[in-house]
Structure formats: C-alpha cells, structure tokens
Design a protein that fits this description.
With 117 residues, the chain is an all-alpha fold. The protein has 2 domains: 1-64; 66-100. Helix content is 73%, strand content 0%. The protein has helices spanning 8-29, 33-64, 69-99.
C-alpha cells in the first residue's frame, strides 16, 4: 500500500492553486489584468505539476499493487460506461422535450393581404 505521505503534494498543490486563483481575481478586480494573467499562468503550471505527480502515483500503484491492476481497469471501464449511458439518456430526454415544440424561423413578416381589413 502506498504511504499517505505520497499524496501530500497533491493536497499542497490544490491549496496553492486555490490561493493563486483567489489572488488573481483580487488583482484583476483592482484593474491589473496583465498581472492576473501571469498569476493564472502560474496556477496552470501548478495544475500541470499536480497532474504529473498523479501519473507518478499511478505508476507507483501499478508496481506496488500488481494484483489490483485488473480491479483498477475494471472500475475505470464501469465508471466510463455509466457516464456514457447517463449522457446518452440525458441527451435523449433533452431531444424528446425540446423537439416537440418545433422550430420557428425568424423570417420577414408577411405583408397583410389586400382583402383583409
């Protein structure tokens, strides 16, 4: 089992990202958009580093728990299939609800016919 200390960098990265995001919004609200963009770029760099560390943890888990590798793959497939079915059902419901109303085109208005008063 992986040591708990290996997950601390992810927690720290999340905290640093939150602080940087808040600081960027404060700087932007004071009218300094250029500095806010620099801070957001730094936050993106922190998020990339956290993603890289997640990959390191994945590789460590694969070597540390080789018997559980099939379970990991199975969980990922089941979760992916669940969300695929969920999205399909929700899109289907959306189409059923909103396709019944019919679409109206915004075209030129008809001129009144001469026989109408």
């Amino acid at each position: 089992m992986l040591a708990w200390g290996l997950y601390v960098p992810l927690l720290l990265a999340a905290a640093v990202f939150a602080v940087i995001s808040i600081a960027a919004q404060v700087v932007r609200s004071r009218g300094n958009a250029a500095s806010a963009e620099k801070l957001l770029d730094l936050g993106f760099l922190v998020a990339l580093a956290a993603g890289a560390w997640t990959l390191v943890l994945l590789v460590l888990a694969m070597f540390d728990e080789p018997d559980d590798l099939w379970d990991m793959v199975l969980v990922i497939v089941v979760v992916g299939a669940f969300f695929a079915v969920l999205l399909t059902v929700l899109f289907g419901i959306f189409e059923l609800i909103f396709s019944r109303g019919g679409r109206q085109r915004a075209g030129p208005e008809e001129a009144p016919s001469p026989d109408r008063t």
